[in-house]
Amino acid sequence: MRTIKYIAVHCTATKQNATVEAIRNYWKRNLGWKQPGYHIIVKPNGDHERLALDETVCNGVKGYNRESIHVSYIGGIDDNGKALDNRTEAQKRTLLQIICGLKAKYPNAIIQGHRDFPNVAKDCPSFNAKEEYKHL
C-alpha cells in the first residue's frame, strides 16, 4: 500500500466533449505513458471512470506521483485554450463525492490542485481546489 500525502485535483485541459478514450490515447501515443494521468476522471454528465487502482502510480504531477491520488474532470479550458472553470453542476457534485471518499480513506492527505504543487506552471484545475475543499 502506498502512503498517500496528496489528493491532486486536475482538469483535462480539453474541451468538455473530449472522450476518455481520446484522452487515454493521447497519453499513450503522444506522451508514451504506460500508466494514465489520473486515477479517476469525471465526465460532464457527472459519470466517472476509474482509470487506475489507488495502488497504481499515475502520471499526474511530476515528482509527486508516488504519494498522490489524481482526480480530474473533463474540461478546464475555453475555446481559445485559456483556463476556464467550466465544470458542470454534475461534475462539481461528483468531484465532491469522490474527494470526500478519498479524504475518508486517506485522512492525512492534503487536497490541492495541480497548480498548487511546487514548480508547476499550469492553471490546472482552472479553479482554486485548496479553497473549495478546505472544509473537508
Summarize the structure.
The protein has 136 residues and is an alpha/beta fold. The chain is built from 3 helices and 5 strands, in the order βαβββαβα. Strands 3-2-4-1-5 form a 5-stranded mixed sheet.
How would you describe this structure to a colleague?
This protein is of the alpha/beta class and 136 residues long. The chain has one domain (6-132): Lysozyme-like, CATH 3.40.80.10. Helices cover 24% and strands 16% of the residues. It contains three helices and five strands. The protein has helices at residues 20-30, 89-105, 129-132, and strands at residues 6-11, 40-42, 48-50, 68-73, 110-113. A five-stranded mixed beta sheet has the order 3-2-4-1-5. Strand 2 and strand 3 form a beta hairpin. The radius of gyration is 14 Å and the shape is globular. The mean pLDDT is 96.
SSE run: EHEEEHEH
Q: Which CATH C-level class is it?
A: Alpha Beta
Strand content: 15-25%
CATH architecture group name: 3-Layer(aba) Sandwich
As laid out across the biggest beta sheet, the strand order is: 3-2-4-1-5
Count of folded domains: 1
Give the helix/strand class.
Answer: alpha/beta
Task: Provide the helix percentage.
Answer: 10-25%
Question: What do we call the CATH topology?
Answer: Lysozyme-like
- Major sheet details: 5 strands, mixed
End-to-end distance = 23 Å
Helix tally? 3
The low-confidence parts are none
Please tally the β strands and state the result.
5
Mean pLDDT: 96
Shape: globular
Could you name the CATH homologous superfamily?
A: Peptidoglycan recognition protein-like
Radius of gyration: 14 Å
Oligomer: single chain
